[in-house]
Amino acid sequence: MTDETRHPLADLSATEALGRRIAALLRPGDIVALRGGLGAGKTTLARAIIAALGHVGEVPSPTFAIIQTYGPPDVSLPLVHADFYRLEDPMEVEELGLDDYLEDAALIAEWPEMAGGFAHDPACLEIHIETGGSERIAIARAGADWLERWG
Asked: Does the global pTM surpass 0.90?
């Protein structure tokens, strides 16, 4: 990961704007790894990305299902939204069959560290949402495949 950028998330509108930016650049095979503590805003940002890809209606948190898929015409490109919070061992990702989903889809991964992390993957855009008091900031680190697009 290289090229760190900071994005203040003062309100929902700012989070939605970041979601639209990510969605506009997203390609099949990409990974958007969302990191941050409980309540930091990972699911809110994931919902903003999914809405910007064209989904209308509720976007359930995949906390219990672990994986939620979206496909055209509901969204502009196949997408997997995963929440790895409940995994006890990164090896459990293999049991989920995540690789099968990702052949032609992009991945939004909440709690990526519970799945072994994706930061080493050149197709990964890692977003770490930091909170301090009432302020939130998204720190983005672009993998090699994202550098030209994200810059």
From this structure: yes
